[in-house]
Amino acid sequence: xxxxxxxxxxxxxxxxxxxxxxxxxxxxxxxxxxxxxxxxxxxxxxxxxxxxxxxxxxxxxxxxxxxxxxxxxxxxxxxxxxxxxxxxxxxxxxxxxxxxxxxxxxxxxxxxxxxxxxxxxxxxxxxxxxxxxxxxxxxxxxxxxxxxxxxxxxxxxxxxxxxxxxxxxxxxxxxxxxxxxxxxxxxxxxxxxxxxxxxxxxxxxxx
Length: 207
Ligand SMILES: Cc1cc2nc3c(=O)[nH]c(=O)nc-3n(C[C@H](O)[C@H](O)[C@H](O)COP(=O)(O)O)c2cc1C
What we know:
The protein is an alpha/beta fold and 207 residues long. 37% of the residues lie in helices and 19% in strands. The strands form 2 sheets. Strands 1, 2, 3, 4, 5 and 6 form a 6-stranded mixed beta sheet that branches. α1 (14-29) packs across α6.
């Protein structure tokens, strides 16, 4: 059994749910997993020696959260020493075309350039439109962006574009790199949407 850290940055909470899902899958494989918000880890010393680290963040105005970049810069040694992976959540990742793939890659490339960390694996993940959480200005802007991408402009409903099965595959592949019992995976991960931001961290003993 390995000890794995999953660190995420989130602005509206969707990436927190993805991080919790990744953690749940890897626990199901038999690993000990700690899921942490990068904002809570600012300048913190990690309390455990980790065997693997997954880092993720969502894209807003072309950038991942500053706290994610800070975490990576602060813990570059660890990220270079143990198996590590990065996931990037955005609406662009929901687009199937080649232009969108290039845009996603450009945002990831900027993250790599700014942090100096070249993750061995990068997983682009389609995010969500959560109109219910936007203020009036952001709702208007997001409606325009959604329209230009052929996405839902019905602001009375939130939209989840995340491919949760792909998220679970990513988590199982990473968990597999660190050993564990792959045959146990896939059985008891929570259903889509259940990994909300306020879901208690099952590893919670260390805060
Ligand atoms: C103000 C704002 C700006 C955004 N900018 C981008 C962007 O530049 N590129 C993109 O692909 N998605 C963009 N998104 C979409 C988010 O990446 C997506 O909603 C994601 O699910 C947010 O995850 P979070 O809830 O964890 O922050 C933006 C969303 C908002 C609300």
